[in-house]
Amino acid sequence: MSTALLERNKESKEEELSPMNQQIEKATKISVNDLNLFYGDKQALYNISIDIQEKQVTALIGPSGCGKSTFLRTLNRMNDLIDGVKISGDITIDHENIYQSHDVIQLRTKVGMVFQKPNLFPMSIYDNVAYGPRMQGIKSKRELNRIVEESLRGAAIWDEVKGRLKTSALGLSGGQQQRVCIARAIAMKPEVILMDEPTSALDPISTLKVEELIAQLKKDYTIVIVTHNMQQAARVSDKTAFFLNGEIIEYDVTKKIFSNPKDQRTEDYVTGRFG
Amino acid sequence: MSTALLERNKESKEEELSPMNQQIEKATKISVNDLNLFYGDKQALYNISIDIQEKQVTALIGPSGCGKSTFLRTLNRMNDLIDGVKISGDITIDHENIYQSHDVIQLRTKVGMVFQKPNLFPMSIYDNVAYGPRMQGIKSKRELNRIVEESLRGAAIWDEVKGRLKTSALGLSGGQQQRVCIARAIAMKPEVILMDEPTSALDPISTLKVEELIAQLKKDYTIVIVTHNMQQAARVSDKTAFFLNGEIIEYDVTKKIFSNPKDQRTEDYVTGRFG
Amino acid sequence: MASLPIENQTTNNRKSNKKKYFLENVSSKVFLFCALLSVFSLLLIIGFVFYKGSHPFIAEGYSFIDFIFGTDWVPSEDQFGIFPMIVASVYATIGALIIGVPVGLFTAIFLSELAPKSMAKIISPAVQLLAGIPSVLYGVFGLAIIVPFLQNNLGLAKGQSLLAVILVLAIMMLPTIVTVAETAIRAVPKTYREGSLALGASEIGTIFKVVVPAAKSGIMAAIVLGLGRAIGETMAVILVAGNSLIIPTSLTDSMRPLTTNIALEMGYAFGTHQEMLFATGIVLFSFILLLNFVLAKISSRGGN
Amino acid sequence: GGNNENEAGSLNEGKDTISISGSTSVGPLAEKLAFNYEENQDVNIEINQIGSSAGITNAISGVSEIGMSSRDLKPEEKESGLDETVIAYDGIVVVVHPSNKVDNLTTEQVKQIFTGKITNWKQLGGDDKEIVVVSREDGSGSRDAFQEIVGYTSGELVKSSIIASGNGNIKTTVATNEHAIGFISFEYIDESISTVKINGVEATAENVLRQKYSLSRPFLFVYKKDHLTDAGQQFIDYILSPEGQAIVSETGAISLH
Amino acid sequence: MRRFKDNLLRGLLWFSALLTVAILVVIVGYIFFKGFRLISLDFIFGDYSPTGGGGIWPMIITTIYTIVISLLIATPIGILAAVYLQEYAKQGRLVKMIRFATESLTGIPSIIYGLFGAVFFVATLKLGMSIIAASLTLTIIVLPVIIRTTEEALKTVPHQYREGSLALGATKLQTLYKVILPSAMPGILSGIILSIGRIVGESAAIFLTAGTVAAMPESIFSSARTLTVHSYLVTQEAGDIELAAAIGIVLIVIILVLNLLATFISKKLNKADY
Ligand SMILES: Nc1ncnc2c1ncn2[C@@H]1O[C@H](COP(=O)(O)OP(=O)(O)OP(=O)(O)O)[C@@H](O)[C@H]1O
Ligand SMILES: Nc1ncnc2c1ncn2[C@@H]1O[C@H](COP(=O)(O)OP(=O)(O)OP(=O)(O)O)[C@@H](O)[C@H]1O
Ligand SMILES: [Mg+2]
Ligand SMILES: [Mg+2]
């Protein structure tokens, strides 16, 4: 299956895209085929088709409101929660159609998510991070302690919060909260991690740490990340998809997107000449 | 009064900083003197002293949790709302001590604010933007229409929302919401605008637009902006203060901070070598 | 980061997920069952009232029009006209709303937004205490304090009056309105308040323009529940209404609301008389439906 | 069966249980009778004061063994096979506020007051004050009896009259209103209100028994013959005995003898 | 002008609150003033006798029985029903109608519930006049209150919490009892407290279903008299306001204890109380 389908925009040249894909040896983890999504009557995604490779970082970029978050949320079926959302097309993860399977829980255990706005629960920091594992039935105090510490370290926040694990998570600064959110997702040891602008609230140092973390995580995990930060996309991702008005305009290895994009609009966007 | 006081960190060299300030001719708009702030028993700001110049953009940078937001919120007394906050020291705006005056409302009309997380009210877009002016007693429909359109244009969001001004503001994407927040602040025509990472949820294009807007606004307004984005600080600000652990480590003209900082820690931070 | 072997974990998940989905299924059935049970019991009551109350009109040839618009209620002489009571109920309810709702809401706003924490901590539970005082005692209070007060200060021959009813009902609505509305207002996110204050809105402006509208749904619930409490109240009203069978024309007239009629005579009623009291219940129910409908309309209009 | 609701009875060491429900006017008297009766007998008497009609309904349906009524049975109720026993008489007394100077009325005057022909105390030799009429609810035994003896119908009752439920409420209403006039049972007379002589006759039990004082009504026990247990019958017998009737007199009601 | 309006509104807020407090003080004060003379150990703990004034211990026990049983039934059903309406049901006409009917039923006078209970629970289900029949009737009376307040409380729980939890692979059920219900606890609690008030304050519905037997109930199938019914009877027939007020004092104390207990329990249940 081809990686970037631009059914509506006939400007794309599919045959040119295919060779690029062949350079990437990794297996396909997520395969999206002809996905359309409507919020009520309003179409938010048009004919999205994309293959996302295992153990790589795939970045989604594009202007505000173009549908990046919406697309990301189809991958763990978070859009199911919104009334009036209609979806057509297929999404398979590990060759399993996630919209046909009824096991959303397993899907969401496998596909972790970090949201745009930190959304910690009104509990202690510890309980927030231990939440997922507990829901999976892990009860051993020692095991939980280990997971919590490991996850918080992984999210580069351990040192800041280790003394106040039992205090409310909502007392943390925005950046701290977001890192705890990442820790909470990591604690589940998912296979895929979806990140919706995970560092938009972070300072450069934490951002760097999270980016390092991403680089490290991708050895084991498949990561899809939405970012507004071109440098970040360039730094962390292996492949990049450029969204515009609900369509994928271009999807390719990151280097190519940033150095030599096919589409004029992509070039305009990544060089900041857009709009 | 000297601009950067590093009472606790004796490494700083005050006498060296002073000459830099003299290059800046603008008058002092906000003057902060020996400010200490406690959340309950926990001290969040230490001996902050800083002069902020009129009709300039002052950027506050520093790692997450260092107190940037906290400091920003002292300038329009938003910290008054938090229980158990204790403040010592003086802040004067236009030579008036804002903690002695009892007219917080006038202060906040004069000092607008854009928050880290978009916090639109559950009303229509129009009502959100018209909220401040209405509170000021503006009733004329035409006048309000004009203000709303102007402000939304100013925040680079007019075209996206003009068709749905009367629909709920909460249906917008994160980026869109934040720009409406900026519009809402602009609608008040304040003298000072405080921005707490106003573009952290925006895509590069909107960010650029907002930055242009900031450049334009500073002709009339004094702007204080917290940002994690070094490039942004470098692009938009005239002066930059570097915060660390609740103190100002260095405060100087932006160019100096980024090209030739005095303090090793500042250098480490702005070059991303920190931590 | 070190991790458990992924496959291992996945199979674990699969196993336990079966149980989870089962639980999920069962629980949603249980929730549905509870909802249906509630609905069922409520339907039963409605059915019961309608069954009993419609009998005279269906089987005994009484005219429903005469029932609604008749002005004479003399059960022992087979006259069943409840028009004066309908008027009385409308007046009493509207009056109680006009006094009870603003006082209750304002108190709730005060407690959640203005009152110092320590003050709210004492007053809120104290107000909730009022909710548990038996209505008989409210009636006694009304009869012993409010009625003589009106009698003496307004120079009336009798203090049992529309005004006394309105005051007692307004008082009885208070705890419900205050408690429910206070909880709703407290739940409004802080960011709204911050956003508004940062725009130079005053504390009061913020409260009325942002916080209260954001809590609209809960406030409506407070009003509706408070109203229900007031309309459904009988024991207290019996004592202060006077229960006279006239169409009230002034606040100082004594009158008999629909509910009182039911409670007053049910103890001795028999046969058609009793059924007519149930019919009174139907009218009351329709009255409440109408009122709630109007309130819902008002609130949805106010929303935009 | 007549005792189907009384699972408690079987828990109670095999004691017999008599369940009685009905009139709130008869209730207090029945409670005292039961209280004394239980002291000497191995029996458990449950008394529920829920109103005459509900008590009669219970007696018919078998929820209660005996119903208490302060009004006469309606024809339909009699048709369903109820028997009745008068256990006492209840005198009804006209009461006014203690400050009221009027202390004697003729039956005709009472009638004119309650039908709205006389509207000011002045007309009766009292102060120049509007009369506020207080009556019981339609269907109430006291009211039925009162109206029958005084001689007016429910339809004639002055419309602006205050309707109070229960003797206590009439008493409280009259006690707090100088304008008011009402009627209550003998049992509830106390110093908060003052009583009015009817046709010059004082409202006392003797005068009722001597048939000088006409305002009275019977207190009834109603039951279905086949529901009545031996214990129930014995309790009724006890009430009708001199011992039981002595208690009746003690409580302020009028004994049968 | 704006300032004037602000001050006016602020004044009104203060005025309303003061008025409410004044009403509270006057009513509670009146009850205490009227009733405190009767309060004695014997009055509370003695055995009831129809001749003396006191001995309300059996009624205290009955009152507590009815509260506990009604709450034990109504709270779970009400909360779960609200959960269904708010979290599971499709928000359509039907749900709206259910909500509407529920609300409207709060205005039906309790004597009608009482008559219903007398026909349905007492006679049809053959429970007899008993504490259980009264409790079931009371359950129906307070259900709308619990459902409605719980629904409102659920509505105020931020959507992000649900998303956050579900995205972590938690089931809806887990999300519900770990995140949503704890966050909604204050609202639910106020519903429960109002219900306690409603149960305690009820008379008509109780004397028609539990009767007025003034003796210690042997079991929940016994007929018995609650404090409120007792105070109803003494005001209605005897006009003994002092006694009613004395009972009122006891009731106020009971409610106070129960409200504190409910608050305490909900705090215990709600570990997420930050
Ligand atoms: N729940 C919703 N109902 C209706 N429309 C929605 C909803 N959520 C998003 N949209 C619309 O769908 C479009 C895509 O939104 P989305 O949040 O996916 O954008 P995005 O690319 O993530 O933007 P941003 O970078 O600002 O987060 C936008 O036009 C938005 O207004
Ligand atoms: N309400 C509060 N109560 C207690 N501590 C707080 C509160 N708000 C902030 N803090 C603490 O004060 C310190 C400074 O927080 P602040 O929000 O000012 O950081 P920041 O520099 O804005 O960080 P970020 O870049 O992550 O937004 C942090 O350690 C934070 O945990
Ligand atoms: Mg987004
Ligand atoms: Mg901050």
TrEMBL record, chain C:
Any one of the GO BP annotations: phosphate ion transport
UniProt xrefs under NCBIfam families: phosphate_pstC (TIGR02138)
Species whose genome carries this gene: Pseudobacillus wudalianchiensis
Domain (ABC transmembrane type-1) ranges: 86-295
GO cellular component: plasma membrane
Family membership noted in the UniProt record: Belongs to the binding-protein-dependent transport system permease family. CysTW subfamily.
Parts of the chain that traverse the membrane: 30-51, 82-111, 123-150, 162-185, 219-247, 276-295
Gene3D superfamilies: MetI-like
Keywords recorded for this protein, A-Z: Cell membrane, Membrane, Phosphate transport, Transmembrane, Transmembrane helix, Transport
GO molecular function terms listed in the Swiss-Prot or TrEMBL record: phosphate transmembrane transporter activity
Lineage: Bacteria, Bacillati, Bacillota, Bacilli, Bacillales
Cellular compartments annotated: Cell membrane
Function: Part of the binding-protein-dependent transport system for phosphate; probably responsible for the translocation of the substrate across the membrane.
Record membrane topology: Multi-pass membrane protein
Domain of life per record: Bacteria
Segment forming the signal sequence: none
Name of the protein this chain belongs to: Phosphate transport system permease protein
TrEMBL record, chain E:
Transmembrane spans: 12-33, 56-85, 105-123, 129-147, 179-200, 243-265
Entry-linked CDD domains: TM_PBP2
InterPro entries linked: MetI-like, MetI-like_sf, Phosphate_PstA
Keywords (A to Z) from UniProt: Cell membrane, Membrane, Transmembrane, Transmembrane helix, Transport
Gene3D superfamilies given in the database record: MetI-like
Any single GO CC term annotated in Swiss-Prot or TrEMBL for this entry: plasma membrane
Subcellular localization(s) per the UniProt record: Cell membrane
Coiled-coil intervals, chain numbering: none
Keyword NADP attached: no
Highest taxon above the source species: Bacteria
Membrane association type: Multi-pass membrane protein
Annotated GO biological process: phosphate ion transmembrane transport
Pfam families: BPD_transp_1 (PF00528)
Domain ABC transmembrane type-1, chain residue ranges per copy: 60-262
GO molecular function, one term: phosphate transmembrane transporter activity
Assigned protein family: Belongs to the binding-protein-dependent transport system permease family. CysTW subfamily.
UniProt cross-references to NCBIfam families, sorted A to Z: 3a0107s02c
Name used for this protein in its record: Phosphate transport system permease protein PstA
